[in-house]
Amino acid sequence: MAKPTNVDPEVPQGVSPEKADTSLAASAAGGTVGWVDDRVPVSGFGRKALRKAFPDHWSFLLGEVALYSFIILLLTGVFLTIWFKPSMAEIEYEGTYALMRGIPMSEAFASTLEISFDIRGGLLIRQIHHWAAILFVAAMIAHMLRVFFTGAFRKPRELNWLIGVGLLQLGMIEGFAGYSLPDDLLSGTGLRFVDGLIRSIPIVGTWAEFFIFGGEFPGELVIPRLYMVHILLIPGLLLALVSAHMALLVYHKHTHFPGPGRKQTNVVGQALFPVYAAKAGGFFFIVFGVTILMGALMQINPVWLYGPYNPAQVTAGSQPDWYMGFVEGAIRIIPNWEWHLLGTTWSWNIALPGLGLMGLFAILPAIYPFVEAWITGDKSEHHILDFPRNAPNRTAFGVAAMTCYGLFWLSGGNDILATQFGVSLNQVTEVMRVLVFAGPVIAFIVTKRICLSLQRRDHERVLHGSSSGVIVRQPDGGYSEAHAPITTEEAFTLTQHHEPAALEVAPETDDRGVRRRGGKQVGSLRARLSRWFAHGRIAKPTAEEIAEAAHHGDHELEEGDVHELPTEEEAATH
Amino acid sequence: MRSPTPKRHHKAARLLLVAAALLVTGGLYAVVAPATSVAAPTPEETVARGQELFAVSCASCHGLNGEGAGLLNETAPSLIGVGAASVDFQMRTGRMPMANPYAQAPNKQNTFTAEEIAAISLYVASLGDGPAIPDPGQYDPSGLSAAEVAVGGDLFRTNCSACHNFQGSGGALPNGRVAPPLLDAEPIDIHEAMRTGPGEMPVFADGAIPDKDVRSMIAYLDQVHAQPSAGLTLGGLGPVSEGFWGWVAGLGILMLFATWITKKAARK
After folding, report:
1. Which domain holds residue B91?
2. Is B257 within 8 Å of A424 when comparing Cβ atoms?
3. What's chain B's Rg over C-alpha atoms?
4. Is A272 domain-assigned?
């Protein structure tokens, strides 16, 4: 949790030592910079760029983990392309791995074995590449959750949020294409899964399948095609979107958590040069180091154990990489709904959880900022983040979505859950069928209650200070706890947030009785939603209440410390 | 009988004589007695002994004559025709006798001696024809060429991995049953299980997978389990555990570093 109260007022926050830094840098590298600057005017840009402020908070580094793992993926990926053969031509393996010798397999699989066993460092690089991919998508999701729960997606950053949603979707497809390439038993089973998914598209499914696979599954085209997608098409798109994402980040500037001196118009943090550059650069090496350690110490995707893909074979524990797990889970637990109409098959058991859920996973995050803005009617810019508790409905919605995702995800490993915890596979499946619907509702209610409790605690702290731990016994025998007042900085942090009023249904006519142009501005549904969204909070204490509480504190010992907290409804009327 | 002269009698002579006689008798018995017990019981005797043991340890569920559906467990199968291999597998691995009527008999510590199991096996085999306990030559994985072992791997992936996982780590089956891990299975266990089809497992008969192929599959498993892994195997369960450790160990550790880095303030 951010504790911005310890901001040192003596440090000129947000004001970078402009002259000292840039002039020093210029004189140190004077000649070169001068030469370059004469041709490409970089110093002006550099002066601004080097002074960019970056606020410090651990959660702001989640996006950096994603960026750095992407760089690691590019570096290790180049290494792998040197030896990988994206071909489905069948050969008989004659390499060094004895347990596969003589087994027919595709060139793609054989070259993966070669990378693993014959190329120096090949296995390490392969494992680093795979772990980095797991981290890449994980960090993207974690980063996205940070942005969501702190409200950083609000104006003016909606476009960057959309780019982020696109990056996540592309990252998942990229990962899928990547782990399909070795043409091992597991990746072939995954491809078979996607083949079914494509076929389940109503009406055009079979044509789409033939288009993508170039005929019946598996055919001989899909690996070369996925290779092109994996090393050219999607990385190109990812690079372009990452650049746009970063450019918009620089343009909008970073958001910061609330605190004294932190305004909508400034950014309080370390200047890019030298402190933040050192931190970010150092962090890159930490991410690289951790990924290398993972690649060196933890086995991942041991394709030589899976064997080459053979449509007649399958293995227990056939699961996709984690980021596709929620789709796998949905397909595992859905009842077997299928229509047979006029000689056609409508596989709702695949189409609904597969296409439907993946569609939801793309669409819901994409439209959320606009839906929330529509509900609140908020058109202002936001550069100060929300504490998640101060937007209880949003936070509760986010946790409900996480719960739903997580339960689908767990369902994808229902067999592993059954064997590891000694429970019945059928019961896991049946429980999950209920939980994926009930879990989010429970999560929403619980989260909202927790948020409101945290708000009440804030309210309490501002009015009555923090618990001192000192119990005072009064002459009449009563007991009360003395409260220590909190600092002004903390009080500011806890009360700085805005409490926008709910939208009202706009009258059809203006105050002169003339019908408004453009019809109704705010419909009754929108007003109701807005009221629900805005009223789910504990009103922060007013100045009078704080003054009264301070006064009240003087007589605390005589009166005892009896006070009532506002209820939710009461708060709504403030 | 000549009476001994009293002079030649020592006081201890009688005592010594008794001791010597005891020693000779005991020694003779020690030499002779095992010989009489080693004299192998006839098959009929063993079957009878097996039937006694069966009545004590098995009949409460499988019926006094192995007909199944005994007093304590109506779902217990008939053992007529399951063969000696089945009894040997179930008892040696501790699956039978079952402590509780679970969905599936778990393997546990076996408390019977080899002779007892052999006797019960022979008794059950006498109830009806079934797979016999295999000879070592039928399951011993040694002496196979690398190519044969590789084929064994392909056969394993075709016939076994769907339930037992790609390296025999085990997997889930419906209604609380599991395909157990094969990591600690003995070669004879695998051979007997394939021939007798315990629990949910189908029977892989000699006509479908001959002994030679069974040997190569066992050899493949042995070699896969013996070879070094590329780091911690994370349970050998595939992408589920990889994803779990990616989040927990990967992102978790990086977030600890991130907290550390962002706590570090710039020098004033």
Report:
1. 43-127
2. no
3. 30
4. yes
Is the CB of residue A518 less than 8 Å away from at least one CB of chain B? no
pLDDT in tens, B113-160: 988 999 999 999 998 888 999 999 999 998 899 999 999 999 999 999
What is the structure's pLDDT at A9? 44
Average per-residue pLDDT for chain A: 88
When pLDDT is cut at 50, 70 and 90, the band that residue A255 belongs to is very high
Domain tally for chain B? 2
Boundary residue ending a domain (A332, A353, A386): A386
Q: Is B29 on the interface with A (CB under 8 A)?
A: no
| Number of domains chain A is built from | 2
Which residues are CB-contacts of A384 (< 8 A; sequence separation ≥ 6)? A255, A256, A257, A258, A262, A263, A264, A496
How far does B96 lie from chain A, in Å, by closest CA?
20
Query: Is the domain of A375 the same as that of A468?
Result: no
Report CA dihedral (B103, B106, B111, B117) to the nearest 10 degrees: 80
CB neighbour list of residue A155: distance below 8 Å, 6 or more residues apart: A373, A378, A379, A380, A381, A382
- Identify all chain B residues contacting A425, using CB atoms and an 8 Å cutoff: 172-176
Taking only residues 77 to 136 of chain A, the set having a beta carbon closer than 8 angstroms to any beta carbon of chain B reads 98-103, 116, 123, 127, 131, 134-135
B246 with A131: Cβ contact below 8 A: yes
For A488-529, the pLDDT digits (tens) are: 999 999 999 888 888 888 777 777 777 766 655 778 888 899
| pLDDT for the residue A382 | 94
Q: What pLDDT, on a 0 to 100 scale, did the predictor assign at position B8?
A: 64
Does B141 lie in the same domain as B123? no
Domain at B93, CATH number:
1.10.760.10
Q: Is the peptide bond before B101 cis (omega within 30 degrees of 0)?
A: no
